[in-house]
Specification:
The structure is a single chain. Strand 1 (about 40) and strand 2 (about 45) form a beta hairpin. The termini are far apart. The protein has a domain at about 20-65. A two-stranded antiparallel ribbon has the order 1-2. It is built from 2 helices and 2 strands, in the order H-E-E-H. By secondary structure, it is an alpha+beta fold.
Length: about 70
């Protein structure tokens, strides 16, 4: 039996082999309206179940913009 780490504390690390930093940054600043739930660090974005729900949420996101000329990314 090996005892190489017998007197050590081993903590698993996160190995993110498929991260796209730019895509992640865009996602965090976008209005998420998807066909499936998205679990994000600040909460879960529930899925839009159909076209009308998507359009309602898109209109609500646009109405919530502080500046009407601001870009809305969805």
């Amino acid at each position: 039996m090996k005892t190489t780490f017998a007197d050590k504390v081993i903590v698993p690390g996160l190995i993110a082999q498929h991260d796209h930093p730019l895509l992640a940054a865009l996602t965090m600043t976008s209005e998420i309206i998807s066909i499936e739930d998205w679990v994000l660090p600040d909460g879960t974005r529930k899925a839009a179940k159909d076209r009308s729900e998507y359009l309602e949420r898109l209109a609500a996101a646009e109405a919530a913009l502080a500046d009407p000329d601001e870009d809305l990314v969805s």
